[in-house]
Amino acid sequence: MNELVPQDWNAPYWEEKTHGLMWNQVKDGVKRDQAKTDARWVEQESAYRYGVGAHVQYGAAFTTWNEALEKKLALEWNEDRTGKSFEGVREAVHAGWDAKKLGYVQDLSRRVLDNTDFRRVLYTAHFSQLVAMSLKPKEELGAEAHPVDQFFRFEAGEGEVVIDGLKSAVREGVAVLVPANSRHNVTNTGAGHLKFYTVYSPPNHRDGVVHHTRADAEADHERFDGATTEHGPG
């Protein structure tokens, strides 16, 4: 236990100083978003904090709040120290969990180079979405237009990008930003796979979707349904 941990804090076995530091960083925001009154905040602060710490500890294994996670947190909740049952603070713990977002911190270049699927959604936030793509020789993305801007960054291969009829060659290291409402397409002109990633703002596809081939993508009439990577339904 360290000086950052209040006496009524439920401290399971995984409590570490880093969790206390994280709580100090997000506490004001959680209080602003969740506390209905000062009295309620004082009563529930340890539960909000437990949720934030749990996301630091288990967020990589549980990308969304679900039944398995809830059972685990209920078992580790120290009712004796807090005087409150887990069921009594469940809502506040869940709110604390949702307050801590892990984001996407990975070797993106490696993920893109290893990808052989036509489309693989890597991460979906509320206002943007990261997608890895791979086109076979002579394959194209398909002409389309979006009401918002779209960003591309090419990691391997050779290709051609067309934006409202203007053609540009692309290769490793080239970035392209397509203005909103511009009709655009990407074609693989090389002998190997053309590998790249794109950022949609806002999200355009269902979170976690994988289309192994372009035919799979065309057959699947999916669209973004509002569920994000870290805060999906449930």
Could you name the key traits of this structure?
234 residues, alpha+beta, Jelly Rolls, 2 domains, six-stranded antiparallel β-sheet, three-stranded antiparallel β-sheet, 7 helices, disordered N terminus
Uncertain runs are 1-9
Decide which structural class fits the backbone.
Answer: alpha+beta
Number of strands: 9
CATH architecture of the largest domain: Sandwich
Q: Output the helix-strand order.
A: HHHHHHEEEEEEEEEH
Mean pLDDT comes to 84
Shape estimate:
elongated
Q: What kind of sheet is the major sheet?
A: 6 strands, antiparallel
Q: Which strands sit side by side, in order, in the main sheet? A: 6-3-8-2-1-9
Radius of gyration: 22 Å
- Our measurement of the CA-to-CA distance between the termini, rounded to an integer number of angstroms, reads 32 Å
* CATH T-level topology of the largest domain: Jelly Rolls
Question: How would you summarize this macromolecular structure in one to three sentences?
Answer:
The chain contains 7 helices and 9 strands.
